[in-house]
Request: fold
Amino acid sequence: MDYPLQLTVNGIPVKRIVEPQVRLLDFLREDLGLTGAKEGCGTGDCGACTVLIDGDPHHSCLTLAVEAEGAAVTTVEGLVSDDRLNEVQSAFVSAGATQCGICTPGFVVMATAYLRDNPNPTDDELRMGIAGNLCRCTGYETIVTALHSVIDGKVERIEVAPEPLELVPEPEGE
Amino acid sequence: MRRFDYAAPTQVFEACALLADRGDEARVLAGGTDLIVQMRERDRRVPLIVSLRNLAELKGISQNADGSLTIGAMATGNEVHHSALVQNHAFFISEGAELLGSIQIRNRGTLGGNVGNAAPSADAAPPLVAANATACLVGAKGTREVPVGDLMTGPGQLALEPGELIQSFNVPAAPAHTGTRYVRHVPRREMDIAVVGIAAQVTLEDDLATIKDASVVLSAVAPTWPHATTAEQALRGQPVNDTTLANAGEAAAADSRPISDVRASAEYRRMMVDVYTRRALATAIERARAAV
Amino acid sequence: MAKVVERPQEKTALRVASKPVSRLDGIENVTGATKFGADFSLPGMLWGAILRSPYAHARIRSIDYAKALEAPGVVTVATAADFDDDVVEPTSRPHNVFAGETALYLGEAVAAVAAVTMEDAEAALELIEVDYEPLPHVLDPLRAMEPDSPVIRHGDGGEVDRTEMSFHSSVASSAEDLEESGNVSSQVQFGRGDIEEGFAEADVIREGRFTAAMVHQTYLEPHAALADYSPSGDLKMWVTSQGQFYVRDTVARLLKLPAHKVIVQGTAIGGGFGGKMTLLAPIPAILSKKARKPVKVVWSRSEELVAANPAPASVIDVKIGAKRDGTITALQGRVVMDTGAYPGSPMSTATMLLGSCYVFPNMELEGFEVLTNKVSVGAYRAPGAPNSAHAVENVMNWVAQDIGMDPLDFRLKNAISEGERWPNGQPLPDVGAVEVLEAMKDHPVWGTPLVQGSNGKPRGRGAAIGCWSGGAGGSAATIKLEADGSFSVLVGTINLTGNTTSIAQVAAEELRVPLEYVSVHLGDTNEAPFGPVAGGSQVTYTMSLSAAAAAQDVLRQMKSVAAQRLGADPDDIEFDEGKMWAESDPDRYVTYRRISDEAVGSANGPIIGTGHGKPERGNPGFAGTIADVEVDTETGLVTILNLVGVQDAGFAINPLSVKGQIQGGTIQGVGYALLEEIVYDEDGRVRNPGLLDYRLPTAADVPDVDAVIVEKHNPYGWKGTRIVGEPSIVPPGAAITSAISDALSIPLHNMPLTPERIVMALRDAKANGRSNGRSNGRPS
Reply:
């Protein structure tokens, strides 16, 4: 059975025909080519597929695409604005909070929503808040450090595009 | 996942008619945090999914004129957890809802789904049972009220008529000097399934030193969410002290009927019922004393 | 707070190396731009799904997939019959893509389907008719060693394939591969001195039998591979693997294709930890070859937990004797390692490592690798070493306590050092065991006595060390000078641990330019020079040498161009910050950009440097852990109060990355110690095939790790670099279990120490009248 689906993804209206068994995760990755959300477990236990639905973090692996009818979906690809990373993304880069990087998109989306809703958590509250996202590489310390730097307002948003290189001017007369 | 048909009716009667019509072929989709996982296991064939997402009657949390609280079956874990109405009314319902997986799970998983999934290890259901909540069931013949404690008949089994849905839960107002607590044992602090869960509601006499009434409901140590009736008897009329709590813990352990599985042995579970019954009661009593 | 033991006088001259640098791929990672294995797709691509044995041990009488081929969307089906006998080593897991005559574990692949959609492929699996004849099975390695046990057979024998283990360790350990008689597939022995005399000299002897559970590497990215077989016979693959050349060689052999026709592009890898080599790649390869269409296969998490290659369970007996003055006199050890259905476990390494941290004048070690009807095991970060350290280090702490000596002083008195020999007779280069122990002693956590809390929950402290030999493979790199004076480095080793950033640092250091002037690119197996498997902690160790050599080659060519332009002798050319000049005339210079221009137009041609590297030898890395814990004795729940991870990195090219490795490895050790365990039922079925019941620590379960980098110069590495990735996982399991044992004043013998195991151990101790008054393992 085909089902008409309308929603917005990262601010862009999307209209597609989908089969009901297609998960939002598959729809984003396979139909729209937004591969930022990852499948780490498919059972809602690792958080790698986290996206925002109407602003709230959800597992896209446990959400049928048809259940997102009419919703505004934001994926990790939608967090960059004005050619700058958001604060959580910037803090992750600076603190060395990504190692292999597979859990990073889910973590970044989750932490962005969590800190928006809880701007001043204690360390323990913060750790409980992100406990639905598993990371196997970092031991979480650099992730927690990065998020504390956001909480402390110490993060400058990183520009995405690199600057052209000019190390040494050509000698005069060349 | 296997292919299936999908309907998201906007009227409760439509949903009930679909369910009645398709019988065992249809499954209700609330938040999907259990159902989608089950359906991805290949042996689970579900020809029709009936989504409840468009049913306004199943949403929201409100206080009634008689002081009772109505919680819609589609209220999500986070809505129930953060609701000031729920927290003021029966704190342990908020506590149980907070334990439904992670924040992401709580944004999808619903109170009705946690009850409807009928897992012995449910975290949000036992507080409803302990608070003497009723479920409002809606079907072709109209609505009826059933105590939540009578709803579950075994693992995965609910006493629903064909075509019936859980519309909401009604939680009566607790007497004065009542405190509640839901606590569970898990190896990790988050993202886990209860090895043992205890919902306790304690009402004290005006002296705040004697137990007037107590409700102790068990999770993950029986085929359903039973009252630990011997423990409840051991508490009523007793002074608040360590002996009373110790007796209640032992009695609750004896009341439990745990099995051994990958999460724990029956023996360990029984020991934990003792420990956590004492701990749940101690906190509930503390809260009863602090309550207005 | 991490502390880096600086050696300022040597480091001030450095511009990029030894500086903490955040990963060059950081921005791609946080924006979702990084492409991992499952992120690659092609037009017209099919999806593959795998049929798995429902029996732990069964003869396969026949497979009939005619009905599956007729199902909607199905294009092809593959089975063991699609591989020629002469390419399959019977005892090699990577070669046995599908079960042949016999399925040896529940979950072993039996067939695979390629279809237009995943739904079609999965539905078709049910239409494949397999006639199984169930055989008796054995799951427990000790039971499997008994003469009347069911026996596991692999076709007609053949060479045991130990390739994957060899990536991780450069140390020879002469395990004897046995003719398959019974289920012991290999056996090893190490001896020294006179063991009976050694124990006779001892004033204190302690011993114990230690078990460690089967655990999973649990990289968050499941296996994924995409294969595209073209009409011309080229097989292009995108694979998430730790070794793209190893994948290439395995696939080429199995499909009987020339190596240069199999072109493997390693993707970004979502964690590997030793477990991601070639398990999956041959399946999409054969499906694509049969279908003549691109085929993608992605494993589910349950397939990972049931059918990948987890780390082995073991039963280890250790007995240590020492004199009152703290001199160790004897070590006896016996390792039984459960290798699952195929040989290839780290049994011999684990056995040898029992005697690798201290000087044992008398020693008797033996090890047995035992086949069972479970999934076969693979490498996991310092394979086998956490199991060994768990046994030895707990006994070391008991002995220290019995003789009344500080456990670190006891270790220092016996610590192994340069010139001493490992059990295999190999003399050691200058290792950092002593330096690691001294850094642990100096750490404020060790210096502060453990204070019992007021909540009635006993606290304990544990310390342990461990080591890992590591790999020392050969590698190559090429570096091009680009038109604007920047440099691109081409490598063939995937970026597992941030090694790309370290390689860029090495190149920038040698070329004397800022890091922004260097980029590192992973080429496919036809483009890139050979790079070793990213395992055995060897990538940065060897690639830093080849990157430095390539940079020197580039500089030599650049100097020649610069010399011509400046009218100077190439030997007199100086360079820095993107320009070259003659020593005699520092005011006239030529920029790297200009050198690039000149070279392209000259007889020299574009500048491309090549470098080869291979460390002269491996040099083991040592690590240590201090753990303080608090135990809820009613529930068995453990809270870790302090966790200190110390590691000798030789020379930390990127301290941020080294710190990250120490933190990550230490927290994986927490999983070993407290949470992780693959559990089987009596039919051989995994009972916890998901991340709900296979429990990784979450952010809420772990403390910060105080990561301390020790730098003991390694003469064989670039600027003293040593292996880094693996050692940090070795001691934490031992330290944490030892701390729990200290808190409860009872000996404990299992990993993981789940809440239930702790409660039951306490109950048993009480029943036996042991344990009550607690005694800290350290003299106060």
In short: Chain B has a mean pLDDT of 96.
